[in-house]
Prior knowledge:
Distance between the termini: 15 Å
Strand content: 15-25%
CATH architecture: 3-Layer(aba) Sandwich
Shape: globular
Strand order of the largest sheet: 1-2-4-3-5-6-7-8
Radius of gyration: 18 Å
Low-confidence stretches: 1-9
Number of helices: 12
Number of strands: 8
CATH class: Alpha Beta
CATH topology: Rossmann fold
Mean pLDDT: 92
CATH superfamily: Alpha/Beta hydrolase fold, catalytic domain
Amino acid sequence: xxxxxxxxxxxxxxxxxxxxxxxxxxxxxxxxxxxxxxxxxxxxxxxxxxxxxxxxxxxxxxxxxxxxxxxxxxxxxxxxxxxxxxxxxxxxxxxxxxxxxxxxxxxxxxxxxxxxxxxxxxxxxxxxxxxxxxxxxxxxxxxxxxxxxxxxxxxxxxxxxxxxxxxxxxxxxxxxxxxxxxxxxxxxxxxxxxxxxxxxxxxxxxxxxxxxxxxxxxxxxxxxxxxxxxxxxxxxxxxxxxxxxxxxxxxxxxxxxxxxxxxxxxxxxxxxxxxxxxxxxxxxxxxxxxxxxxxxx
Length: 297
């Protein structure tokens, strides 16, 4: 199947998922698409919506790509379903957007929970996923001791339930992402606080129950036959001790995977090292695409 797809240029558009689409029918997704070439779909992490803006800009300069991104349910102006959303539902949102855009196959690149969604999409519709780029997925079942992360998540969730949204967001970002997150976000994104506060509600309402209830273990990983590229921030494990064990386990579980550690980066890695990630993704796509999945870059 040829990966080079042509879809009309679209910016800030909306998709309403058809009602017959199981648990996510009726959800409206805000999305954008730009460029012409090999399709790449981004799946953003928690709290913020613009995790992949700098990486999309970098990829635009390194090859011919059709880049797509969307706000997951509850983020930005995307809506939530009427019932709690599962990881399968999150993946269906991504796949529904691909169908809407006419993308028969695409590379998926996900950060944090977005990386988990990419894995779930690869399981649901393997023929639609060319590869998965995984930036620190919090696969709780891939570590023998998820308690360091869960302790912080429970404490921050308690703040959120008490109505302290700003405090919950700050405690989560310092305890799970990077204690120096404000400086990085101010430098890279400039304006981000309003987006983060709105995203904090979506994070605790949907993302955390979804991640903690998701089961992805060695048998599921063995079914992900697509090429996978994993990224780990050098400093991430200092903040969240599960990062390196999960990274190492997934590399051993996934049958067609390679891993890269980014010097000086934390869980903010798509904002800290977009040029490095773009270069590694481009090399990965060119090296891993087979004769069946034609490269036109």
